[in-house]
Amino acid sequence: MNIIVVGLSHKTAGVEIREKIAFSPTQMEKPLKTLVELPDITEAVIVSTCNRVEIYATTRDVAGGMARLKRFLADYHNFPLETLEKHLYSYHGEDATRHVFRVASSLDSMVVGEPQILGQIKTSYGYAAEFKSSGIILNRFLHKAFSVAKRVRTETKIASSAVSVAFAAVELAKKIFGELGDKTVLLIGAGEMCELAAKHFINVGVRGVMVTNRTYERAEKLAEEFDAKPVRFEDLMDHLPKADIILSSTGAPHFIIRENDMEEVLRRRKHKPMFFIDIAVPRDIDPKVNDVENCYLYTVDDLNGVVATNLEQRKIEAAKAEAIVEQEIGQFFKWLASLDVTPTIVALRSHFDEIRKAELAKTLSNWKDLPPGAEKKLEALTNAIMNKLLHQPTSTLKRTDQGSRNDLYVDALRSLFDLQTETEQENLMELED
Amino acid sequence: MNALLFNSTLVIYAVVTAVYLLYLLKPKESLGKVGLWLTLAGFVVHCGFTVNRYLEAGHTPITNLHESLSFFSLAIVGIFILFERRYKISILGSFMMPLALLVMAISASFSSVIPPLNPALKSKWLAVHTIMAFLGYAAFAISFGVSIMYLIQSHFLKTRRLGPMFQKLPALDLLDDISYRCLTFGFPLLTFAIISGAIWAETAWGTYWSWDPKETWSLITWFIYAALLHGRLTTGWRGRKAAMLSIFGFVIMLFTFLGVNLLLPGLHSYK
Q1: Option in B157, B174, B236 nearest A296 (CB)
Q2: Domain covering A165-307, topology
C-alpha cells in the first residue's frame, strides 16, 4: 500500500487559484466520500487552509492514484485540469511522508514555525475520521505526523520568537513589564503598523488604550474602533505619565516627545519604566529619550532588527527540525513495511510452528513407551493441523482484489499474535501519548 | 563527620555553580531543573552540617567566621530556593549559587575546630541575634544578585543586545519587584538584629550601645537600606537607581560583616 499526496500551496499557486480549489469546512462529507469511492483510492484525508489544499490518500497504484486525485480536484471545483496541473505537486512513498511531516511541523509554512497549521490538520483529520474516509494507514500516518510536530515544537525553538514587528514589540514589552494586564498603551497618530501593534497589545490584554491625533475627530474615530479613550493632542503631556507603552507614528516633521520632557513625566509616574515604540519617519521621539533612566526607546529599524535576528534563529531551529523529521520517516516506514502481506504470513507461520514444535517436544519427552515410527506420525499430524488452521487466513490475506481489507487484517494479526518487532512497539507507545 | 558534611556541601555547591553557569551559556532548560535539584540536595546536607555542629558544640554554631560564613551561605541558599520556587526563575541560581559557593569557600579557609565558647556569648540571645542578622544579610544578598540581573537586563534592552541571555533573564519589573520584596524581608530582620543586639549588650556589657565598630557599621547599613526603602515608597526610586543602591548597600553590609571582624578591633571581632 502506498501513501500519495497531491496538492498546492502558497509556494506553487497564488491566492486566486487557491481560493478556487479550497474546500469549505462545512461541506467535507461529499468530497471525502467521493474520494474513497474512486477506483485505486482506499483512504483519503483533505487538508484545506488559506495557504494550502492537499489530499492525502492511499493507493495500490501510485501513478493511477495520483492521476485520479488531480482529476478529482479539477472536476470537483469545475476548474480546467490543464491550468491546475501546473500548480500541483505530488509525492509518494518517503517523499509524501516527509512532505506531510514537514507541513504538520510548520516547516513548509509561509511563516516557518507558525503554530496554526497543526490545529488545521487535526481538524481536517477529524472530518476524515467522522466520515470514515481514513483507515488504518492514514490514521497511523497522521497520528505520527502529529507526534512529529509535537517533538519539533518541544525539542526546537522554532516557534519561540516573534517574527513580525508588531509581535516583536509585544515581546519586548513583556521583557520590560512582565505581565501587561495592568499596563496602558498610548497611540499617537495613526498608521497601519501602529494600529496593528495596538491590536496585538489589546489581544494580549492590556488594561487600557488611549488614542491621540492632531485632529481630534480622527482620534475619536480610532478610539471607537479600539474601544479606547480619545485624548486631545494639546493634552499629550498631561496624559503621557499615565501611559506605559507609547506607540507613535505621526507625520510631524520634528520630535513630539523630547528628552527634557521626560524628567517631569517620569517624576509624575514615580519613575516607573516606559516603553516607547517610534514607527514614524521622520522620527517622533528624540533618540536621547533612550538614555533617560527607566525609558526604553525602539524605532522601527530596531524592531526590524529583532525580527531579522529571530528569523535567522528560526532557520537554525528549522535545520534541527528537519533532522527530527528525517529520523521519524525511517520509523514510520518500518511500520508501513510491516503491513506487507508476505512477511506477515511468514511471521505468523513461524509463530505457529514454534508453538507446535515446543508442545510436541514436551509431549514426546514425557512419553516413555512410544512405539517406533510414532514420532514421525505425530510430527505429520501436528503439521497437518497447523496447515489446515492457517489455510483460510493465508488465502484471505493473499487476495488482492479491490475492496480487500488486507492492511487492516495484517495490522490486527500482528497485534493479536504479537508479531511486532521492537521498534514498532516503541512507535505504538509514542502514538499513545 | 563534621568535616565530611562540610566538604560534601562545598563539593555539591561547586557542582551546582558549574551547572548554573552552564545554564547561562547553553540554551537548555533542563539544566535549570538539574541545578535546582542539586541545590536542594546541597541544602539538606548543609542543614545536616549545621545541626551536627550545633549538637557537637552545644550552642548555636554562629560564633566565629568559619561558622557564621557557613550559616550565611546556608541562609542564601535557603532564601534562593524559596524565591526560585515562588517566581520560577532558574537563572537566579546562576547569580546566587556562585555567591553561596564563594562564601562557603571563604568559610573553609578558617579553622573548623570548635573552640571553647567565649563567655560573653553564653546567652539565649546568641541564637536570636545571629540568626536574624544572617537571614537579613541573606535577603540583602538575594536583592544584590537580582539587582545585578536588573542592570544586565536593562543594559541589554538599552543597547538592543537581545541574545539568549536576554531571553532567559526575566522581565525588568519582576526583577525590580523581587529586589524590593527581599528588602522588605531583610530590613525588619536587620532592625530586630540590631535591637536584640542592643538588649543583649545591656545584659552582657552593661550598656545598650557602645559605638563599637560593628554597631556603627550596622547602623550605617541600616540607614542605607532605610533610605532605599523610603526613597522607593515616596519618590519612586526604582529601576537602575534602586538596583545600584542595593548593590552599594550589600557591599557596605559585607564590610559590616567581614571587614569589621577582620580589620577593625572591637567587641565584635570574633574570628
Answers
A1: B157
A2: Rossmann fold (3.40.50)
